[in-house]
Fold this sequence. Notes:
Elements: H1 3-15, H2 25-32, H3 47-53, H4 61-78, H5 84-103, H6 130-146, H7 150-180, E1 187-192, E2 199-205, E3 209-216, E4 223-228, H8 234-242, H9 244-252, E5 256-262, E6 266-273, E7 277-278, E8 281-282, E9 285-291, E10 296-302
Antiparallel strand pairs: 1-2, 2-3, 3-4, 5-6, 6-9, 7-8, 9-10
Amino acid sequence: xxxxxxxxxxWAIARAGLGRVSPGATAALVLASNLPxxxxxxxxxxxxxxxxxxxxxxxxxxxxxxxxxxxxxxxxRFVKGSRFGPLLGCTLLGLALHVVMDLWTSYGTRALTPLxxxxxxxxxxxxxxxxxxxxxxxxxxxxxxxxxxxxxxVALLACALYVGGRGVAHDAAVRAAVAAIxxxxxxxxxxPEPIDPLRWRVLAxxxxxxxxxxxxxxxxxxxxxxxxxxxxxxxxxRIRESSAVAAIxxxxxxxxxxxxxxxxxxxxxxxxxxxxxxxxxxxxxTRVEVDAEGRILSERFEF
Length: 303
């Protein structure tokens, strides 16, 4: 999720009572709730490098303990009167919460790297969820205003119930989508919308085509557009094997969409991700341009 939500979550936990376990505990929770996103430095080597390393080892269960120990040690060194044990517990909790909150989204995270490099995404909440932000913000404000942990605890409980409810709604949306599509599909994604918890974008894979549309639970019948997939030609297969940028993107993309375009120099093989394909903006696109003989001229990834 976004870093404001991560920060508010760590702060709310501190206001709920854990901030009192040691001097520096609040800082530990807030900083740990953001620490995994330091992998953003990979973007200094380009967007493809960022995609390759973002939500990788720093977001995995394997990487939690080293980060927690390092942050707790730094805080213990600089925060007077702090205790390492409570600080370590707070940093572990903040880091673990970060990973879980990223799993809630459709972007997902590689929670088991380096044991396995698979992406996991639960598709429960939008990457910036205004309801979670509002609940955490209100809980922190009231907790500070009343100088009591109760409002922060209520806010955290409300967020947990909200995400659980979205999980129930997600399963219902998947079942409704399968029932509405008039051909067999072997995988379906119901992607959350940012405002309405009952509205979902649907992607369904029927093998030779995708069904793309949206539905609202309790609303009218869903409508889907059938989008036939482009055939993977020998050129596309060769690019898939030889382009480093394409390999990074296709490792990340759960719903790749292929297009081949004519260019003055030859052809462009373009992959996008249907999760991030919106009418107003097409995001997460990899473009590999080749000459008439199929030699790669350029390759790039754009958010």
